[in-house]
Amino acid sequence: MSQFAWCVVGAGPAGISAIGKLLDAGISAKQIAWVDPEFNVGDIGAKWYRVNGNTKVKTLKRFLSHCKSFQIEQVPDFSIYSLNDEKSCLLEHVVEPLYWITQHFLKRVSSFKEKVCTLANNNHHWYLELEHQTLIAEQVILATGATPKTLPTNKTTIPLEVALHDEKLNQLDLSNQTVGVYGSSHSAIVAMKNLLNGKVKKVINFYRQPTKYAVCLQDFILFDNTGLKDYAADWAREHIDGKWPDRLERVHCSSEEKDSKVEQCDFLIFTIGFEKRDEIKVSPYKHSLPYNESNGIIAPGLFGLGIAYPCRVVDPLGNVEHDVGMNKFMCHLDHVLPIWLQYKA
């Protein structure tokens, strides 16, 4: 069994950030294990690359330059560096440099292209049982990502990864179909925009809350994580809070006609958030272990990072949200890694 000081599970933006920050903290690359079944920038590289994000290009560039170990300055001609700093962009533009960083790290740390099946703590070490071998690490960072939430239904659903991918969605024949979209978040706006740009017969949007917009104030952004930004905000102001397109109908979820409207739908799309991907069993516990929402600690020597383990933040007006975003994960690491370095089993 191979033994390491640290093991990072997951190779999406959070996992890449963890490797970068560990190296920047002086941890020897030989003492770091990295486990992922693909090493292809996680779900963002496999599913969400055609999504227009809600983060400005200048913030993504700040993320890419945050870690010295990224060495991103060695390849300055990535497409993201030619884009407008003040606008958002397709996520594929940040996937490109993240994939380059991944390949750079794979030459330095010990990598294992497998899934982690179970975790168990024994004698101050974590034992990670992979599909074909077992690793031992003093400390483990789980950056395992999240999956879209759904609701029970007898209707055929269009997966969120298809709804947010304009090219894949256009491959479906929706010309005589009515599609219901649950939610009013950034993902809901992208899905409705993609549908209405195609030949769908009708879109029915089922929502619970009024549209929420992010507002840049002097010292902070109100509704930074839950409010609409950039092009999604522009589209919602025109087509949701303005004049609805002819093929769009909106129905509040408490409406008496909600059930009958659902029955009119041929397909449903759920854009109601994400939940932790719960694939790894932690022995001997029989339930999913909670994490500390302030510092990411799950257990001594075991930590959570990324969209599956977001940091709870409170803005100056008392609004509570969970911080989700590449640069936010990195900034969170700046605060918690000094704690994690000392919090051993």
In short:
With 345 residues, the chain is of the alpha/beta class. It has helices at residues 13-24, 42-46, 57-64, 92-106, 160-163, 166-170, 186-196, 230-239, 258-263, 326-340; strands at 2-9, 32-35, 110-112, 116-122, 125-130, 134-142, 146-148, 156-157, 178-182, 202-207, 215-216, 221-222, 248-252, 267-270, 274-276, 281-283, 297-299, 302-304, 311-314, 320-323. It has two domains: 2-147 and 274-340, FAD/NAD(P)-binding domain (3-Layer(bba) Sandwich), CATH 3.50.50; 150-270, FAD/NAD(P)-binding domain (3-Layer(bba) Sandwich).
Overall body shape: globular
Structural class, by secondary structure, is: alpha/beta
The span between the termini is 19 Å
Question: How much of the polypeptide forms β-strand, as a percent range?
Answer: 15-25%
Q: Predict the CATH topology of the largest domain.
A: FAD/NAD(P)-binding domain
Number of domains: 2
The major sheet is characterized as:
9 strands, mixed
Number of strands: 20
Structure description:
The chain has two domains: 2-147 and 274-340, FAD/NAD(P)-binding domain (3-Layer(bba) Sandwich); 150-270, FAD/NAD(P)-binding domain (3-Layer(bba) Sandwich), CATH 3.50.50. The protein has 345 residues and is of the alpha/beta class. Strands 1, 2, 3, 4, 5, 6, 16, 17 and 18 form a nine-stranded mixed β-sheet that branches. The mean pLDDT is 96. The protein contains ten helices and 20 strands. The two termini are 19 Å apart.
